Amino acid sequence: MQQRTIGGRSVSAIGLGGMPMSIEGRPDDARAIATIHAALDAGVTLIDTADSYHRDANEVGHNEDLIARALRSYGAGADEVLVATKGGHLRPGDGSWTQNGDPAYLARAAKESARRLGVDAIGLYQFHRPDPSVPYADSIGAIRDLLDEGAIVMAGISNASVAQIDEAREILGGRLVSVQNQFSPAFRSSLGELEHCAALGIAFLPWSPLGGIRSAKDLADRHGAFQEVADETGASVHQVALAWELALAPVVIPIPGASRPESIRDSAAAAELELTAEQIARLSA
Ligand SMILES: NC(=O)c1ccc[n+]([C@@H]2O[C@H](COP(=O)([O-])OP(=O)(O)OC[C@H]3O[C@@H](n4cnc5c(N)ncnc54)[C@H](OP(=O)(O)O)[C@@H]3O)[C@@H](O)[C@H]2O)c1
């Protein structure tokens, strides 16, 4: 599999997003484990998760626990696979998502995530979403403290504007290694952040890179140009979307979600799909 880098660490150009395996509509445990193992078989060495990827209020960390078990049963350690988790989002159990960017909360949440993942230090810890009730600098200050203590190895942010990327860089300096924002054929408004990351050499992880759990199946219907290029290349429309994202900048590392082995196998193969400059321009138009 093609490799890209996050903070100097080499990872597969396509990661696995863990969310569909833990929220509403999730598969049973056996299928979830088989999906993670299929990703590893395909050469995926980046798995994205969060403590808030769960369904009911009493199962915080469901996805982190699942990934830790899958890695253990596969025999893969933290040196081989980078598990990127996040803190700062919560799910009270009624389907909603809330925020908590309080520094003391983030410090506790990171330690709980490390315990569930079975590591002394989290490979990549991302502040999940700015909390409007807490100054951004205070939340990022908590991430800096986690780095200083050695509780996390690398730091990232998510759902951040260009101004917030710059603010985080002022606090973390070169230790800010990744930005995870929504980006897909349907959602392109974070192109500015993608380009900013490309200029700074910071990894950009598009979330919902296929349009999201519910919409991924409609990619061909909603985005005719992507189906056209799929027909031209013999690739799936999902592979075309991921290959297009990879082509936008060398810092881009999409993290398509999956709850079936065949989905992540298909997505992983997108790393080897080369599009022509003309095809990329058509998809970008
Ligand atoms: N930072 C944030 O705020 C944030 C927000 C949302 C998501 N995320 C992260 O981003 C990841 C990806 O986003 P997402 O899961 O919401 O949406 P997505 O990746 O756009 O779509 C996921 C869905 O696409 C289907 N799929 C994946 N690869 C496919 C393929 N090659 N062919 C056909 N179908 C395919 C999967 O179906 P099956 O389920 O049938 O396999 C899956 O349910 C999440 O898992 C999560 O880790 C982060």
Strand coverage percent: 15-25%
Q: Uncertain spans, ≥5 residues at pLDDT below 50?
A: none
Measured between the Cα atoms of the first and last residue, the distance is 28 Å
Shape: globular
Question: If you had to describe this structure to a student in words, what would you say it looks like?
Answer:
The protein is built from eleven helices and eleven strands. The protein is of the alpha/beta class. The strands form three sheets. Strands 3-4-5-8-9-10-11 form a seven-stranded parallel beta sheet, covered by helices on one side. A two-stranded antiparallel ribbon has the order 1-2. α1 packs across α2 (62-74), α1 (29-41) packs parallel to α10 and α3 crosses α4 (136-149). The structure holds NADP nicotinamide-adenine-dinucleotide phosphate. Residues 17-20, 48, 128-129, 158-159, 180, 207-213, 216, 236, 238, 255-260, 263, 266-267 line the site of NADP nicotinamide-adenine-dinucleotide phosphate (NAP).
Please describe the topology of this protein.
Blueprint: E1 3-6, E2 9-12, E3 16-17, H1 29-41, E4 46-48, H2 62-74, E5 82-87, E6 89-90, E7 98-99, H3 103-117, E8 122-127, H4 136-149, E9 152-158, H5 162-172, E10 176-182, H6 191-200, E11 203-207, H7 219-222, H8 224-233, H9 237-248, H10 261-268, H11 277-284
Helix pairs in contact: 1-2, 1-10, 3-4, 4-5, 8-9
Bound molecules: NADP nicotinamide-adenine-dinucleotide phosphate.
The site of NADP nicotinamide-adenine-dinucleotide phosphate (NAP) has 29 residues, from helix 10.
